[in-house]
């Protein structure tokens, strides 16, 4: 009887320990993400498995071109996977109108110094980033809901693990 | 040998502690006067509150809750405010660029109780609910201030129109 009890105690103790270790690794080092939806095609497809890291996002210095996982600003239970297009201080030029927008709007990122007059533009404010999906016809992103706060960014995509044939750094 | 055992238990203890802080909650000091009179009523002493992470695990918050969130302007900073409106509500603002705002999907309107001395949604607009990190449930220190924090909203700060259901935008 006693031996069974101590067995159970051991099992509970070890499973607790490993659960905590896993939590910490996934929360602070990196985790795996299965992506879903067409918004990042042709870079990422549905059901690809990605490895992400959470170390660099702690410092909150975004770089243009990084693919990130963020909490969706329109639904806090959902995560989105997009590419950073503009960082604070960048000027985003929305061709031919403002958001919320219809599908065919090209977005150009240009440096502060350049000057373009015929387009609607807005600056990315401090603490915010401008994100977009690679599949601009089929993606709801900053062109729809505006720049998102950096606090929503959870992790940065490092590489694709699955399918094996297409495994590579991103 | 005892030393090695000590190191081992520390290495195993850290993840357990961190997980506890992440899932259950932690105690934090409240700085500033933006939440007077609910928190820090007297400038000479600072309150310590228990921030419950467990309470926001399903993103289920209510109007009147005191919450801590990541500042949308500076992601390294956390702020503590009261929720005034949820998605779909119409709130009358105090000095925001629009006099009346319908809160967009997935966002909420947060304000400090100390109107006019608080950097809140009246400055930066509706905030994404994903920025909420925890709900303040108790004042734990100083001992004479120990109490549960009530979910209440001053009558004059209630939204002008409350969304009929939580899923206003999905209809």
TrEMBL record, chain A:
<comment type="similarity">
    <text>Belongs to the peptidase S26 family. IMP1 subfamily.</text>
</comment>
<dbReference type="GO" id="GO:0006627">
    <property type="term" value="P:protein processing involved in protein targeting to mitochondrion"/>
</dbReference>
<dbReference type="InterPro" id="IPR000223">
    <property type="entry name" value="Pept_S26A_signal_pept_1"/>
</dbReference>
<dbReference type="InterPro" id="IPR052064">
    <property type="entry name" value="Mito_IMP1_subunit"/>
</dbReference>
<protein>
    <recommendedName>
        <fullName>Mitochondrial inner membrane protease subunit</fullName>
        <ecNumber>3.4.21.-</ecNumber>
    </recommendedName>
</protein>
<dbReference type="InterPro" id="IPR036286">
    <property type="entry name" value="LexA/Signal_pep-like_sf"/>
</dbReference>
<keyword id="KW-0378">Hydrolase</keyword>
<dbReference type="Pfam" id="PF10502">
    <property type="entry name" value="Peptidase_S26"/>
</dbReference>
<keyword id="KW-0645">Protease</keyword>
<keyword id="KW-0496">Mitochondrion</keyword>
<dbReference type="GO" id="GO:0004252">
    <property type="term" value="F:serine-type endopeptidase activity"/>
</dbReference>
<dbReference type="InterPro" id="IPR019533">
    <property type="entry name" value="Peptidase_S26"/>
</dbReference>
<keyword id="KW-0999">Mitochondrion inner membrane</keyword>
<keyword id="KW-0472">Membrane</keyword>
<dbReference type="GO" id="GO:0006465">
    <property type="term" value="P:signal peptide processing"/>
</dbReference>
<dbReference type="InterPro" id="IPR019758">
    <property type="entry name" value="Pept_S26A_signal_pept_1_CS"/>
</dbReference>
<comment type="subunit">
    <text>Heterodimer of 2 subunits, IMMPL1 and IMMPL2.</text>
</comment>
<feature type="domain" description="Peptidase S26">
    <location>
        <begin position="10"/>
        <end position="162"/>
    </location>
</feature>
<dbReference type="GO" id="GO:0042720">
    <property type="term" value="C:mitochondrial inner membrane peptidase complex"/>
</dbReference>
<feature type="active site">
    <location>
        <position position="82"/>
    </location>
</feature>
<feature type="active site">
    <location>
        <position position="39"/>
    </location>
</feature>
<dbReference type="InterPro" id="IPR019757">
    <property type="entry name" value="Pept_S26A_signal_pept_1_Lys-AS"/>
</dbReference>
TrEMBL record, chain B:
<dbReference type="Pfam" id="PF10502">
    <property type="entry name" value="Peptidase_S26"/>
</dbReference>
<dbReference type="InterPro" id="IPR037730">
    <property type="entry name" value="IMP2"/>
</dbReference>
<keyword id="KW-0812">Transmembrane</keyword>
<comment type="subunit">
    <text>Heterodimer of 2 subunits, IMMPL1 and IMMPL2.</text>
</comment>
<keyword id="KW-0999">Mitochondrion inner membrane</keyword>
<feature type="active site">
    <location>
        <position position="34"/>
    </location>
</feature>
<feature type="domain" description="Peptidase S26">
    <location>
        <begin position="5"/>
        <end position="92"/>
    </location>
</feature>
<feature type="active site">
    <location>
        <position position="81"/>
    </location>
</feature>
<comment type="similarity">
    <text>Belongs to the peptidase S26 family. IMP2 subfamily.</text>
</comment>
<dbReference type="GO" id="GO:0006465">
    <property type="term" value="P:signal peptide processing"/>
</dbReference>
<keyword id="KW-0645">Protease</keyword>
<keyword id="KW-0496">Mitochondrion</keyword>
<dbReference type="InterPro" id="IPR036286">
    <property type="entry name" value="LexA/Signal_pep-like_sf"/>
</dbReference>
<dbReference type="InterPro" id="IPR000223">
    <property type="entry name" value="Pept_S26A_signal_pept_1"/>
</dbReference>
<keyword id="KW-0378">Hydrolase</keyword>
<feature type="domain" description="Peptidase S26">
    <location>
        <begin position="101"/>
        <end position="141"/>
    </location>
</feature>
<keyword id="KW-0472">Membrane</keyword>
<dbReference type="GO" id="GO:0006627">
    <property type="term" value="P:protein processing involved in protein targeting to mitochondrion"/>
</dbReference>
<dbReference type="GO" id="GO:0004252">
    <property type="term" value="F:serine-type endopeptidase activity"/>
</dbReference>
<dbReference type="GO" id="GO:0042720">
    <property type="term" value="C:mitochondrial inner membrane peptidase complex"/>
</dbReference>
<protein>
    <recommendedName>
        <fullName>Mitochondrial inner membrane protease subunit 2</fullName>
    </recommendedName>
</protein>
<keyword id="KW-1133">Transmembrane helix</keyword>
């Amino acid at each position: 009887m006693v031996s069974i009890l101590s067995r159970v105690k051991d099992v509970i103790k070890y499973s607790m320990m490993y659960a905590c270790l896993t939590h910490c690794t996934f929360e602070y080092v990196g985790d795996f993400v299965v992506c879903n939806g067409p918004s990042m095609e042709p870079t990422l497809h549905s059901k690809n498995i990605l490895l992400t890291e959470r170390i660099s996002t702690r410092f909150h210095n975004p770089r243009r071109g990084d693919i990130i996982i963020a909490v969706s600003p329109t639904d806090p239970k959902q995560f989105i996977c997009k590419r950073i297009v503009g960082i604070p201080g960048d000027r985003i030029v929305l061709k031919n109108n403002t958001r919320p927008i219809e599908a065919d709007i090209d977005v150009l990122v240009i440096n502060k110094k350049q000057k373009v007059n015929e387009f609607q533009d807005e600056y990315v404010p401090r603490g915010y980033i401008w994100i977009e999906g690679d599949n601009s016809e089929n993606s709801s992103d900053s062109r729809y809901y505006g720049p998102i706060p950096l606090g929503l960014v959870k992790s940065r995509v490092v590489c694709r693990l699955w399918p094996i044939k297409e495994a590579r750094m991103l | 040998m005892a030393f090695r055992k000590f190191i081992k238990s520390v290495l195993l203890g850290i993840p357990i502690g961190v997980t506890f802080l992440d899932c259950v909650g932690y105690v934090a000091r409240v700085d500033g006067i933006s939440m007077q009179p609910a928190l820090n009523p007297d400038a000479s002493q600072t309150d310590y509150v228990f921030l419950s992470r467990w309470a926001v695990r399903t993103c289920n918050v209510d109007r009147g809750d005191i919450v801590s969130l990541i500042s949308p302007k500076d992601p390294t900073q956390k702020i503590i405010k009261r929720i005034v409106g949820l998605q779909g509500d119409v709130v009358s603002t105090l000095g925001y660029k629009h006099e009346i705002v319908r809160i967009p999907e997935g966002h909420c309107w947060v304000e400090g109780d100390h109107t006019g001395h608080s950097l809140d949604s009246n400055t930066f607009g509706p905030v994404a609910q994903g920025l909420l990190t925890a709900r303040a449930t108790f004042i734990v220190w100083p001992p004479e201030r120990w109490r549960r924090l009530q979910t209440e909203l001053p009558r004059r700060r209630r939204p002008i129109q409350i969304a009929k259901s939580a899923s206003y935008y999905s209809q």
